[in-house]
Specification:
Elements: E1 4-11, H1 14-23, E2 30-37, E3 56-62, H2 74-90, E4 96-98, E5 102-105, E6 108-120, E7 123-133, H3 151-155, H4 161-180, H5 184-193, E8 201-205, E9 210-218, E10 224-228, E11 231-235, E12 237-243, E13 249-251, E14 257-259
Parallel strand pairs: 1-2
Antiparallel strand pairs: 2-3, 3-7, 4-5, 5-6, 6-7, 8-9, 8-12, 9-10, 10-11, 12-13, 12-14
Bound molecules: biotinyl-5-AMP.
Residues 13-15, 37, 40-44, 46-50, 57-59, 101, 109, 112-114, 130-132, 134, 144, 148, 254-255 line the site of biotinyl-5-AMP.
């Protein structure tokens, strides 16, 4: 993939801006990166809070015409793998992946991914992959301080943001080529290899029901399978809380809320 990077000191949201560039016909590989977002977004309208200049806040424009609309979910998993591999290379850490879109260090969220798609009538036109990675930020607002971390908080070191950005983009490009061959299985396997959810007790909360059981697998279609007392149940969305063996929740709301599309 050929990247062209547009940099901003300040922007509303790199995702919102790039969705507009996508509508205007900008090519695949267009990247928008900002030092500060005034309206950084998570999923379901949540806020992404990041101190200016300390972190990576960027979005990548994709035009994955080799994917059907119900296969777009795979891009979130591929991006999580790309980020994890990049952090292994560039920061010498071993991140853990949590369904469906979180990258964790020590059970805390270091990176969130926001995938947004734009359709032309029924056809997928473009996808914007937004990545917020906490790099050199040392402290977090009280409401997330016990569940958020940064590369710097975790390692005690400072990082060159561009070096991490270029490593992520290069890993993303490589995994995107694998997706082009439609080898979804190998991408999901790389995701599963970095997840520690399997075999743990998890709680899945839907709008009107809660299920608890052992996390069995995350399937190639991105769904999560849980062994409950009523048998195996498959979920494509829900709020996930992971429990340690005999401790309380490892991470709960709002980080666990997920939908795979
Ligand atoms: C996400 O949403 O994790 C996706 C975040 C994507 C942010 C990037 S930044 C560049 C691009 N432009 C945008 O406008 N967005 C993308 P979600 O799974 O809904 O998680 C959001 C929740 O994470 C919030 O409700 C907070 O509880 C928590 N959170 C907010 N800021 C955080 C941070 N810096 N580190 C860790 N957790 C955070």
């Amino acid at each position: 993939m050929n990247y062209e990077i547009y940099r901003f000191d300040k922007i509303d949201s790199t995702n919102s801006y790039l969705l507009r560039l996508g509508d205007e016909g900008f090519p695949e590989g267009t990247v928008v990166a900002a030092d500060e977002q005034l309206n950084g977004r998570g999923r379901f309208g949540r806020k992404w809070e990041a101190e200016p200049v300390s972190n990576l806040l960027f979005s990548v424009l994709l035009r994955p015409n080799f994917l059907d609309r119900d296969e777009v979910f795979i891009l979130t998993f591929a991006a999580a793998v790309a980020v994890a591999e990049a952090l292994e290379d560039a920061a010498l850490v071993q991140p853990e992946l949590k369904w469906p879109n979180d990258v964790l260090l020590d059970g805390k969220k270091v990176c969130g991914i926001l995938l947004e798609s734009s359709f032309d009538s029924d056809d997928l036109d473009h996808v914007v992959l937004g990545i917020g990675l906490n790099v050199n930020q040392k402290t977090f607002p009280p409401e997330i301080s016990n569940r958020a971390t940064s590369l710097s908080s975790f390692t005690g070191k400072e990082f060159e943001r561009d070096e991490i950005l270029f490593t992520i983009l290069s890993r993303l490009s490589a995994i995107y080529e694998v997706l082009r061959t439609r080898d979804f299985h190998s991408v999901m396997k790389r995701w599963r290899d970095r997840s520690k959810m399997f075999g743990k007790t998890i709680r899945v909360r839907l709008a009107d029901k809660t299920f608890e059981g052992i996390c069995d697998e995350v399937a190639d279609d991105g769904s999560i399978v849980v062994q409950t007392s009523a048998g195996a149940q498959k979920f494509t969305s829900g709020e996930i809380t992971i429990f340690q063996m005999s401790e309380g929740p490892l991470s709960g709301d709002p980080f666990g809320t997920g939908e795979i599309s």
